[in-house]
Every structure is written in structure tokens, then in C-alpha cells.
Specification:
heterodimer, A: alpha/beta, five-stranded mixed sheet, about 20% strand, B: alpha+beta, four-stranded mixed sheet, about 40% helix
Chain lengths: ~160, ~475
């Protein structure tokens, strides 16, 4: 399978670096099987980068109401695309799911995308270094997200 | 640490906009405020760091226009260290900047604004997006993608990366352009002027058919500011700051380092963004706008042939000497895209971008330096004071969204007065409000990446109480 492991984040916005750090570490485990890249931009920039892969594993930071820093979520883009009844939520932005549809409509081969989103505490303040809770979770995140990717790769191989 | 299986997409927190509309006792709109949740603290973050780091590090303020911050920082570093930057390096910087402005404008117009313009503000929200445009007018959507891609390819050819390229440095740039890349870019650029002129014609038709309320609800007099060449021509990379009044008459034309002579800033407790204004006129009368509309209102000509022709037609369509309609930012943005493509072509034909000297050594000395550039959304100012070892003691940034803050507030007030009467929020108002703000294409969050959507909240207040609210 032609797959990409892509980390998103900003290394000068405190916890926002976590997607980059986890991806860099996972590069050691998967570097011989996946393309591994880190990127400091939003999804609108990604259409060309995603095109041509069968599968993209995306590692990013997220902040949700009441979430516990260091936890992570695994989901596909369609699970976070606003619905048609959302009163215009999707009007002025382009989600990853839309990006897939758009890319396909443009004749580009778009991948299946799995998002690993890590709950963070402070991705807003400029500065280097993560908050304690997120930093403490990084070793486990590397291992568990790595195992999830391993499982996905194995499932694809046997499919 | 644990793995969660459920996610609520609307809880993704990033920078967001909020509009508060104040009603008087009779329920009429008194005024409206556009609040921005802004990431803060960047100025403090850069203190004590070496001035040479500023181009690279300030580029990370924004994932949409990193090149603008990088160039403004490099220009400020040149200024404070008296670097005699080679002409070839200036051309290379301008080349990358034109790629940046082009790709950013393409994102703004084709991806974010064209759904409203092409499909109509009242179209079904489920269809009013870039996918809807692709279905309604596939050629337009495809051209938008081509234009954006070309701008990104210019950046990547110079900086190796499309975002956060490591290119501009104090004293110049890090490398020249590979000649083969230049030839490829020239070939790729060939159809783009035609794409843009046809899109401008399409937009003019859309405006022709648009009802007056929609066309005019964010129309108001202000000053207009932008960089100009010595001859008064359109300039995005380096020039003097020109400010014209609501009638198009020149108020100021100053060296960019002297911006503090004409601009003051005021804070308001309800907004993280400051409100800059033209000093001589005071806060109430000194509001001005920046960005594509302001630049085209301020200049005497646009320096490339096809863009100049379009600009002449654009200005001829003004009722007075300048355009006041915020909706015409879109028109101005397309003309600027045409200018960018033509200017890129000119620069790609110049041997200096392939063979010129890239940079000169820089030596620190205590002092203050200013770098001003026309970012896609408007005038961007970086100012640094450094010590004699080159460490930043103090930094000040004024970004385009800040310059336009007063104007955006005027815009939402004007829209509220047109569409709101009484303590109820009419259907579709959020989209109309957003479309006003969207004209200015503000960086609401400077967030580099986001999974969720841009949240927007609207509250109606009367006698200090919230009487209605809506959010998404």
C-alpha cells in the first residue's frame, strides 16, 4: 500500500507541536514502509500532498470541550464534516472530506484518510515546549497510535 | 492517556469571530461590534532572540501568508543593520511574494467567496460551497485550483517548501531560481491571464445582476492605504506608504519606516485587536482600509499591461474618485491576481533571478528597523529594536486585519442596519454578516491547521441583556 504518515502542527505554539513530535518519532518505526512528513499548514494546502496515496494517516492536535489533555481520538474526515442541516457550517471552509471529494472531481486520486487527533491543553500561546500533561502522554501516544497504524496496515495487507 | 471514540466537530476550538449588535429602546440597530479571538503573545515570544531568526520564526505566525511575514521581518532586519541588499535578491523576494499574494487571493476568491457570488447568498447551505461551485461551474473551480497551485509552485521553486519556506534572510535571500524551474513556471503561467480576465468578466456580470441591498450593504467612506512605487504605481514588496482620503485625494506619502508619524493605535476593551487610525484626523474620522480595494483606490496606475487595463475599467466604474463598496474587494482581488501573474512572468524573464548575487553579510548594531510589505490582505508592518549584539529587545507588528478592524466594524454595523429591525435574528443573517467580513479576508485565528470549521457567533443586545443569539 502506498501510504503517507502526515503530522500537522506548529512548533512555536506550545502543545500544537505534539502532532509533529509524535510523527517524527513514528517515522523511526514506519519510515521503511510509509512516507513520513510533517507539515505546518492547514488542509486547504493539502490537496496536492494527499493526491496519489492510497491511505493517509494524519496526526494533529485538537481541543474539545471537557477533553483530557493527552487523550487521542481516531476518526475519518466524514465524521467531522458538518452535515447538510448544519445551517451553513460547511459554507466557507473546506474540510478533509470535501477535499477528498474535490480532488476526485478534479481527476486526482485521493486517499482514504485516518485522523489521529491528540487532545491538547494550550495550542494558542506562542512558546516552545508542551504543557506537562501532554508531554507526559507522548511516549504512550507514540506507542498506541503506532499500534493503531500497524493494525490498519495489517488489515489492508490481508484485505 | 486513553483513546476516545467519539468527537464533536463543533467543539474544535480555534480563533473565531463574534458579532455583537446593540439595539436601542425602539429595537433599531445602534451599533455593532466585530470581536476577534486572537492568538496573542508573539511579540513577547520573539524578545531576546537574535534578529537573524526573525524571518524564519515570524513566518510561523500564519500558515496562509508565511511569506509576507518572512519578507517583512527580513526587510526590518535589513533596515536595522543597514544591509545593502543586492537588487537581484530584491527581485527574488518580490517573485516569491507575488506567488504568495496570488495563491492567497485564489484561496480567498475561488474557495471561500465564489460559492456566495456564483451560487447566491440565499442558495441552500448544503450546496453553497466549493463543491457546489464545481458542479455549477466546473471550469471556474478548476481554474481557481490552477491559479492557486501556480502561486504555490512559485514559492516551492524558490523555497523548496510551499508553506514556511526558508528563503528570505537578513541581507537578501538564500538562493537563486533554477533556470529549468523558471522555464516550467513560465509555461505553466501561459493560460492564467486569460483565466483571470474571463473570471473578472463573470464577476462583473454577477455584480450587474446583484440586488442593490446586497451590493451596497457594506458601503461607507474611509481612507485607503497601500504601498506605491516612486511613480505612484501598484507595489506589494517595497515602496512608500500612501494614504488617500475618501475622495481619493492624497493625504500622505511617506517612507515606510516613518509609519508612526501618521498611524496611531487605540485599544478597546471588547476586542483583542487594536484599532489603528490616521493620526491627523483623530480616531473617529481617521479610519482607513487596506488590502486589494484600498491599494487599487490609492495608486495612480497598475504596472502590468493587462492588469492596468482592468484597473482603468474598474476605476471608471466608481461613482466617485474611489470605490467604497466592500463587495468590490473581490473585483480588486482578481485584478491583483492578474497583476501578480504578469509580474511573475516579467521577473521570470529577468536573468537576475537566475544568476544574481543572493545576499550580503550583516552586522548587528543597536537600533530600530522597520519592514513594511503589502501582504495579500493589506499593509503588514514589522518593527524591531535590537541591542548591539543583535538580540531583539522589542517588537511590534501591525497586520492587515488590524488595519481593517475599524472598517470591518463599520461593515457589520452597516449590514446590521440594513437587515435587522427588532430583537429577532432574521434567517440567513449570519451568512450576510460573514460575507461582509469575508470581503476583508481576515486572518481570524492565524491558526496553522484546523479540523473544524470557523465558528461565528452573533448576539443581539438590548439594555445590556442578550435578547437573541445564533452561532455555528
Amino acid at each position: 500500500m502506498n501510504a503517507l504518515l502526515l503530522g500537522l502542527g506548529n512548533d512555536i505554539k506550545r502543545d500544537d507541536v505534539v502532532g509533529l513530535d509524535v510523527t517524527d518519532a513514528l517515522g523511526e518505526r514506519f519510515g521503511d514502509r510509509l512516507d513520513v512528513e510533517t507539515y505546518t499548514s492547514g488542509r486547504l494546502m493539502l490537496i496536492q500532498e494527499l493526491s496519489g496515496y492510497d491511505h493517509v494517516f494524519l496526526v494533529d492536535a485538537i481541543k474539545t470541550d471537557g477533553g483530557t489533555p493527552g487523550d487521542y481520538y481516531e476518526f475519518s474526515p466524514s465524521e467531522v464534516e458538518p452535515g447538510d442541516d448544519s445551517g451553513g457550517l460547511a459554507t466557507h471552509n473546506v474540510g478533509l472530506g470535501t477535499l477528498q471529494t474535490l480532488g476526485e472531481a478534479m481527476g486526482q486520486s485521493m486517499p482514504e484518510i485516518t485522523i489521529f487527533a491528540i487532545e491538547v491543553e494550550n495550542p494558542f500561546e506562542y512558546g516552545e515546549g508542551m504543557t506537562d500533561a501532554v508531554e507526559a502522554a507522548v511516549p504512550d501516544l507514540i506507542e498506541e497510535i503506532g499500534d493503531d497504524i500497524e493494525t490498519a496496515l495489517a488489515a489492508t495487507a490481508t484485505a | 492517556m486513553s483513546k476516545k471514540e467519539v468527537i464533536d466537530p463543533v467543539t474544535r476550538v480555534e480563533g473565531h469571530g463574534k458579532i455583537t449588535i446593540h439595539l436601542d429602546d425602539e429595537g433599531s440597530v445602534e451599533d455593532a461590534q466585530f470581536h476577534v479571538t486572537e492568538f496573542r503573545g508573539f511579540e513577547e515570544f520573539v524578545e531576546s532572540r537574535p534578529i537573524w531568526e526573525m524571518p524564519e520564526i515570524t513566518a510561523r505566525i500564519c500558515g496562509i501568508c508565511p511569506v509576507s511575514h518572512q519578507l517583512a521581518a527580513a526587510k526590518a532586519a535589513d533596515d536595522v543593520m543597514d544591509a545593502d541588499v543586492p537588487e537581484s535578491a530584491h527581485k527574488l523576494r518580490e517573485l516569491m511574494h507575488m506567488g504568495q499574494v496570488l495563491q492567497s487571493h485564489a484561496l480567498s476568491f475561488f474557495y471561500l467567496s465564489s460559492p456566495d457570488l456564483v451560487l447566491g447568498y440565499d442558495a441552500d447551505p448544503a450546496d453553497r460551497n466549493i463543491e457546489g461551485v464545481l458542479e455549477e461551474n466546473p471550469q471556474l473551480a478548476e481554474r481557481g485550483i490552477d491559479l492557486r497551485s501556480f502561486g504555490q509552485n512559485v514559492i516551492a521553486a524558490l523555497g523548496e517548501k510551499k508553506v514556511h519556506p526558508d528563503f528570505a534572510v537578513a541581507g537578501g535571500v538564500s538562493n537563486t531560481l533554477d533556470r529549468e524551474d523558471g522555464e516550467d513556471l513560465l509555461e505553466e503561467s501561459e493560460p492564467l491571464p486569460t483565466y483571470l480576465r474571463e473570471t473578472i468578466d463573470l464577476l462583473k456580470d454577477i455584480f450587474e445582476e446583484m440586488d442593490d441591498d446586497t451590493l451596497d450593504y457594506a458601503t461607507y467612506p474611509t481612507g485607503y492605504m497601500g504601498l506605491v512605487t516612486e511613480e505612484g504605481g501598484l507595489e506589494h514588496y517595497d515602496g512608500d506608504i500612501r494614504l488617500v482620503d475618501e475622495g481619493g485625494d492624497q493625504l500622505e506619502e511617506i517612507d515606510d519606516g516613518a509609519y508612526r508619524d501618521i498611524i496611531a493605535e487605540r485599544s478597546k476593551e471588547w476586542s483583542y485587536l487594536k484599532f489603528p487610525y490616521y493620526k491627523d484626523r483623530g480616531f473617529e474620522d481617521g479610519q482607513y482600509r487596506v488590502g486589494p480595494l484600498a491599494r487599487l483606490n490609492a495608486v495612480d496606475d497598475v504596472r502590468t499591461p493587462q492588469a492596468h487595463e482592468e484597473w482603468v475599467e474598474f476605476m471608471d466604474a466608481a461613482e466617485g474618485a474611489v470605490h467604497e463598496r466592500s463587495t468590490y474587494y473581490h473585483w480588486a482581488r482578481l485584478i491583483e491576481m492578474l497583476y501578480c501573474v504578469e509580474r511573475i512572468q516579467e521577473l521570470l524573464e529577468d536573468d537576475d533571478v537566475y544568476d544574481g548575487i543572493t545576499n550580503v553579510p550583516t552586522k548587528p548594531k543597536a537600533g530600530t528597523g522597520v519592514g513594511v510589505i503589502e501582504a495579500p490582505r493589506g499593509t503588514l508592518i514589522h518593527e524591531y529594536t535590537i541591542d548591539d549584539g543583535g538580540k531583539v529587545e522589542n517588537a511590534n507588528f501591525i497586520v492587515a486585519t488590524t488595519h481593517n478592524n475599524g472598517a470591518m466594524n463599520k461593515g457589520v454595523t452597516s449590514a446590521a442596519e440594513t437587515f435587522i429591525d427588532g430583537p429577532e435574528i432574521p434567517e440567513g443573517i449570519l451568512n450576510k454578516m460573514e460575507s461582509v467580513i469575508r470581503c476583508y479576508d481576515p486572518c481570524l485565528s492565524c491558526s496553522t491547521h484546523a479540523i473544524g470549521e470557523m465558528p461565528l457567533e452573533l448576539e443581539l443586545e438590548q439594555d445590556g441583556e442578550t435578547v437573541a443569539s445564533m452561532s455555528r
